[in-house]
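User: Hi! I'm working on a homework problem where we have to compare a predicted structure to a textbook description. Could you give me the structure for the chain below?
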Amino acid sequence: MIRHIVMFKFENAENKQDMSAFCLNVKSELLALQTKIPEILTMEVGLNIAAAGNAFDLVLVSDFESVTALNAYRIHPEHLMVVELINRYKTAAHVVDYEL
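Assistant: Happy to help. Predicted structure tokens:
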């Protein structure tokens, strides 16, 4: 089994409410992928509550049966639409994939 973790940092918006709404929308869109992409075994999305300057804004943790399943997820059209949404405000992302 493969665990896929991605942390996202988004640009600072002048209006924090707008950025909070954006993050909630991203969370919702990511979680909706579970019903659209059969390769996803589990998925969790968390919004940061830490005030530290080096903190990221959102984290995705998902599990896949194999690297092949993870790669199918990566190129799935539904996933790519969410990536497009994320890329509108993303300033940084870190990814870790590892075997369980």
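For your comparison, note the following. The chain has a mean pLDDT of 94. Residues 51 and 87 are 23 Å apart (CA to CA). Good luck with the assignment!
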